[in-house]
Amino acid sequence: MSTTTQYNVIVVGGGLVGSLCALFMAKRGYQVSLYEYREDPRATEFARGRSINLALSNRARRALQEVGIEERILKCGIAMKGRYIHNINGKNKSILYDPRTRQCIYSVSRNYLNQELLQEVERHLNVRTYFNHKLINVDVDQGRLVFLQTKNNTTIETYGDLLIGADGAFSTVRRALQQTPLFNFSQTYIDHGYIEMNINSQSGRAMVPNHLHIWPRGEFMMIALPNLDYSWTVTLFMPFERFKELNSPDKVLDFFKKFFPDSVELLGKRQLVEDFANTKPSPLVSIKCGSYHVGENILIIGDAAHAMVPFYGQGMNAGFEDCLLLDSILEDCNDNFPVALKLFTESRREDAHAICDLAMYNYMEMRDLVTRPSYLIRKKFDDF
Ligand code: FAD
Hints:
Elements: E1 8-12, H1 16-27, E2 31-35, E3 53-56, H2 58-66, H3 70-75, E4 78-80, E5 82-85, E6 93-96, E7 105-109, H4 110-122, E8 127-130, E9 133-139, E10 144-149, E11 154-159, E12 162-165, H5 172-178, E13 185-189, E14 192-199, H6 201-204, E15 211-216, E16 221-226, E17 232-239, H7 240-245, H8 249-259, H9 264-267, H10 269-278, E18 285-289, E19 293-294, E20 298-300, H11 303-306, H12 315-332, H13 337-367, H14 374-382
Parallel strand pairs: 1-2, 1-12, 2-8, 5-15, 12-20
Antiparallel strand pairs: 3-7, 4-7, 5-6, 9-10, 10-11, 13-18, 14-17, 15-16, 16-17, 19-20
The structure holds flavin-adenine dinucleotide.
């Protein structure tokens, strides 16, 4: 390997975690190449299909602080100091997360965050970003990556001293690692999917501000997170079977009137019907790996390493924490990549598995247990 500043680091995936990781690596003085399949999000309309806003918590804040952009990001976030529970009987209530010290989480726009991270990455002269580059092949033994340049359908090959896969839940890098001996991996789809809707900025002013709103209904639930323009992004999580039953405008409206009566006017009847007609519910997957590296220079982080169901609001947060951890390990072991990767797997695995489990558990908490007095919750677990 070459001297510190000449290490070539390749990051695959310019989503939230890949962009932040590239920033950390650039600050270490490495030569960084960031490859992303999609167009540059700063040059295109935001693509629908992923959550439009996300809950950002302490885990992510610590990482953003380390690279010096926490304040800037929080300025464009909306503090959520607690849950606002919409009971079916109309008796709504606010439950503060931390009444004593008033800690809160923040609702931030995914697109804004991604753009700011890329902007910050590109301030560094030792970084090159390549959009419209899809990783199609990984030779684990040789440390060789092949990308398809989607604009002109040609391929390029590249090598690096360190290869970091931050290419999301369906990671191509991880798929290559899965084919190596002794690499353990598990993937679980839940029977529930989600669709996103919107309360526009006019109606949104009627919502109680600075809360994460939840409509818990036992088997399913709806949540809403605020946007800066007073609109709200609303997500309905429900078994696929139930989504299938809502196959006509009347059925959709009857369902909402029955289970989410106070949301019908906010969402708008016509919009509701249109959203259901035009949107297919998306699946939710949880992924665990036995290791996050193979050999001496290939590592996966973020959703590629530990995608989780979104009910704990920690997927991105945990991915940002990966970047912080990797950076501190590299610092402690003087940029010795083989040692650092091993240490990363060893120190991350237990926590990553735990947060995947907590995320799964929190669906039950949010859609059901949050409505019950604590003695009944204890009883439910005693019955288990
Ligand atoms: P991604 O965001 O998936 O980014 C991966 C990137 O890699 C993408 O840009 C993709 O285009 C690129 N890529 C993929 N394949 C290739 C390839 N072959 N070649 C090159 N590039 C490639 N987390 C929270 O912390 N808080 C929340 O409130 C929250 N809410 C959520 C709500 C929903 C409905 C969902 C689905 C998720 C939520 N999450 C939340 C989780 C969060 O979205 C993910 O954990 C986060 O996006 C992971 O970031 P990532 O960069 O690892 O992966």
